Amino acid sequence: MALVIADRVKESSTTSGTGTITLGGAVSGYQAFTAIGNGNQCYYTIVNIAVATEWEVGVGTYSSSTLTRDTVLSSSNAGAKVSFSVGNKEVFVTYPADRSVSQADIGTAPNEIPLNQYLGSLAYQDLESVVIEGGTLAGLDIQSLAAQVSTDAVNTGIVNAEQFLAGSSAVLRGGATNLVTYTEDLTNAYWVKNGTTITANAIVAPDGTLTMDKLVETAAGGHHYIYSGNYSYISGTSYTSSFYAKKGERQYLALVLSSLAFGATAFAVFDLESGTFNPAAGLTDATITLIGNDIYRCTITATATSSASGAGFTLFINNVAAAVVNTYTGDGTSGAYLWGAQLTASATPQPYLKTVATAVTTAYAAPLESPNGLALPLLASMTPARNADMTFELASDTSLVVKVKGSDGTVRSATLTLA
Questions:
Q1: Disulfide-capable partner of 23 in 11, 70, 129, 276 (CB 3.0 to 4.6 Å)?
Q2: pLDDT, tens digit (0-9, with 9 covering 90-100), for 197-209
Q3: Neighbour count for residue 154 (Cβ, 10 Å)
Q4: pLDDT in tens, 65-75
């Protein structure tokens, strides 16, 4: 169901009361509501020709010569449905003042594509979402594919095309790479376990899949940690490391950046019970954010002081909350739940990107607020990372590439010519 606006649509009606309007045919010089299309919504105005004080503006649904009065926006009955008197009415498509958007509201900063201006009937915004409708992806017709992005991405870092856009404050900006791999499979040999073991797929992860592993301490004494394969850090570059975690028997986890590139104090200890953290002196920033179901996203940021090769991600089970990486004797059963490890060359946390065998670059960085409307700032060379992700690649001033990663993992694309 789309919200459709069409020019010169006006019909007569003799319907009275507060019910569905039966349309009586187009007024001379105008077109009928068939221009809206069965099942679609429109903005309407109803006026009683015989009783000029009776009028109503709202959102209605057209279906086979009838118009349901779904939502009243304003009326002569103090904003409620009008019980129309007997007599002739005129019913026409309008554009209500409180729903109007000017070009100034949309904004046209460099690389920002206002959907309705440039994509025409291919894209529209209904009462709930921005929808891409029509077109072909390598032989696969797009049938009302919804480009819906959760504003929760600000907190969770997860952006997916199946999620819902609540309101109009999400602006997507491009370009971040997760530099670690096998981010949802800590059993892989890429991850080295020292004084720990992994229980695979122990609980439900933040994305709703049963992929959150448990990091379990052994009964040995010493450090209990896991670390990834090496990454070559560049001196003077900021890096942000992050993970999702849930308290098990242990509530303290220490996230550490490589001492070879950052020195010995680039770490923080996170408390998964209180939602707090203790940062060491070598960090420029650290955060902990509750995203639901007692799962937190924890992040640390620091600037490399040396160009060196070191672990891309290191996480310790800790038995104290203080900003120290502690040694202790484990019990062989206690631990905490982990998912979604990430390292990005960035000074701020980026939305989480799943990786398997190779690093992945996303089309998205953190959503930013836009004062009015919805804009999609576009960058070149963007590829969907997760199933159901959709990206927009501005190949040139006149060419837009839409890419969708299907449930089978295949990325399909369509190139649109911009007039």
A1: 11
A2: 999 999 999 888 9
A3: 16
A4: 999 999 999 99
